[in-house]
């Protein structure tokens, strides 16, 4: 148990067709709360950090928070660097001890993306780490990375060549999903996940998970989406929980920060735990 490689967590999920929440945290409270939910629900968990979070907190402090909070944890967890187009940040996090990284070179031509991803995979292997890859931008801006321009899908043959050449451990395709809050119900290309998995059995990462229906989650997980990214839902829960508590505090004219932290933590634990149950990862840690 405890801190394990990303591929170890995803191998079981992919084989048994359940999804593992990959939740973007942004401070000590959210990190501790999602880990607590994993222990409570006996679920594996992928903790994700954005480039923005790494830079705002600092990789040293962030990694020390991680090691302190996972010391003695008895469910499998792993630390992942989410969408990162900056090779220097990739190197920094791998050297600190991150277990995996998503090298986001989706804005590059596929050939250059492939060439650099091969280099990142080699670098990660030297640190015993894993790599997520993508060749298509996921629509939407998240933590200052991305674009609102709709992503164009590459042909299946192009995607398969990327997977075979780079040797990435998980793949994030564009299937009509988007980062942030959906402005309308997304039209998803479920078959593309099935086609990729049939041609090259590899765990698929579902990005833009916040806002999908329970039915969409279950369908995609059943097709091989073993890693399910959640960011916006946590941010909204965190901010709205703070807002509700502070409004009540203002009415009562009672200001107690520890009470605020407890209330927000409870809401974050509940959100993370509900996702573990929905995705089928609850109880998988024994």
UniProtKB/TrEMBL annotation:
Any Gene Ontology biological process: carbohydrate metabolic process
UniProt-recorded Gene Ontology molecular function terms: aldehyde-lyase activity; zinc ion binding
Residues engaged in binding Zn(2+) 1: 83, 179, 207
Alphabetized UniProt keyword annotations: Metal-binding, Zinc
Keyword Zinc: yes
Cofactor: Zn(2+)
Active-site residues from the entry: 82 (proton donor)
Co-factor remark: Binds 2 Zn(2+) ions per subunit. One is catalytic and the other provides a structural contribution.
Domain of life: Bacteria
Entry keyword annotation includes Nucleus: no
Binding site for Zn(2+) 2: 104, 134
InterPro entries: Aldolase_TIM, Class_II_FBP_aldolase, FBA_II
Residues engaged in binding dihydroxyacetone phosphate: 180, 208-210, 229-232
Any Pfam family matching the protein: F_bP_aldolase
UniProt-recorded name of the protein: Fructose-bisphosphate aldolase, class II
Source organism of this protein record: Actinacidiphila guanduensis
């Amino acid at each position: 148990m405890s801190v394990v490689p990303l591929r170890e967590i995803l191998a079981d999920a992919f084989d048994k067709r359940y999804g593992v929440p990959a939740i973007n945290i942004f401070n000590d409270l959210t990190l501790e709360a999602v880990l607590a939910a994993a222990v409570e629900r006996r679920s594996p968990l992928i903790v994700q950090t954005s480039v923005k979070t790494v830079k705002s907190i600092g990789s040293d402090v962030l990694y020390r928070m991680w090691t302190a909070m996972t010391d003695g944890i008895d469910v499998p967890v792993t630390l992942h660097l989410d969408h990162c187009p900056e090779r220097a940040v990739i190197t920094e996090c791998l050297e600190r001890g991150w277990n995996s990284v998503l090298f986001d070179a989706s804005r590059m031509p596929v050939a250059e993306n492939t060439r650099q991803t091969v280099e990142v995979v080699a670098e990660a292997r030297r640190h015993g780490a894993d790599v997520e890859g993508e060749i298509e931008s996921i629509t939407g801006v998240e933590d200052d990375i991305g674009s609102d321009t709709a992503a164009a899908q590459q042909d299946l043959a192009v995607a398969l060549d990327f997977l075979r050449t780079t040797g990435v451990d998980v793949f994030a395709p564009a299937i009509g999903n988007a980062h942030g809050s959906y402005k309308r119900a997304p039209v998803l290309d479920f078959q593309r996940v099935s086609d990729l998995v049939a041609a090259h059995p590899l765990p698929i990462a579902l990005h833009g998970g916040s806002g999908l229906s329970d039915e969409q989650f279950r369908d995609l997980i059943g097709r091989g989406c073993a890693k399910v990214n959640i960011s916006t839902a946590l941010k909204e829960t965190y901010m709205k929980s703070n807002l509700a508590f502070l409004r009540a505090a203002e009415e009562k004219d009672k200001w107690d920060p520890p009470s605020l932290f407890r209330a927000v933590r409870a809401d974050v634990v509940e959100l993370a735990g509900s996702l573990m149950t929905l995705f089928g990862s609850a109880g998988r840690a024994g």
